[in-house]
Amino acid sequence: FSPSVLGTREHWDAAYERELQTFQDIGDTGEIWFGEESMVRIIRWLEKHKVPLDSSVLDIGTGNGVLLVELAKSGYVNLTGIDYSPSAIQLSEKVREKEGMSNIKLKVEDFLAPSAELSGFDICIDKGTFDAVSLDPSDALGKRRLYVASLGRVLKPEGFFLITSCNWTREELLNEFREGFEILEELPTPKFCFGGRIGNSVTALVFQRK
């Protein structure tokens, strides 16, 4: 991919500072990445596979934390969200407070250099964070490798990794996560038609750590 400001911390700090101010002004939580259906898709998969409600869940690049709130409303009780942008965590804390979900844990963490205490998760979820890492103007390839290594450290063996991407195809994601992970399922996502060919604008996959 071409390098982009979407891959820089400065961009996300500025974006979440704006969203934080908007929330304080009018109570708007901001954009839901990939729309509400992306959250429903994840929660349905967890419910379909009878993932226990006390499973430890990590939201990688939580942003405004809305996914965690929806998981909490669905009964999940062991929820953690991380983001490398302090403004994002401030926003998600305010959203958590507004929704009365005090049991959601939130931390400023860079997933590419996770702290030692960030480990042992049953479920890791990514909606767009790997996409952003892939657009980093400085050594995107190296940072993608760091991401995969970090995922291997924080996710338990046989734990599940649910990723939603608009930059990567199924085959490309299988290649990126080929070491240490195996594909379990591709989740249905909206399709589009262009030039007589049908494709997916969004890819959603479930991996299991070996």
Automatic annotation (TrEMBL):
Gene3D superfamilies: Vaccinia Virus protein VP39. CDD domains: AdoMet_MTases. Residues 56-185 form the Methyltransferase domain. GO terms for cellular component: cytoplasm. SUPFAM superfamilies: S-adenosyl-L-methionine-dependent methyltransferases (SSF53335). It comes from Sitta europaea (Eurasian nuthatch). It holds the Pfam family Methyltransf_31. It catalyses: L-lysyl-[protein] + 3 S-adenosyl-L-methionine = N(6),N(6),N(6)-trimethyl-L-lysyl-[protein] + 3 S-adenosyl-L-homocysteine + 3 H(+). GO terms for molecular function: protein-lysine N-methyltransferase activity. GO terms for biological process: methylation. It comes from the Eukaryota. Keywords: Cytoplasm, Methyltransferase, Nucleus, S-adenosyl-L-methionine, Transferase. This is EFMT2 methyltransferase. The keyword Transferase applies.
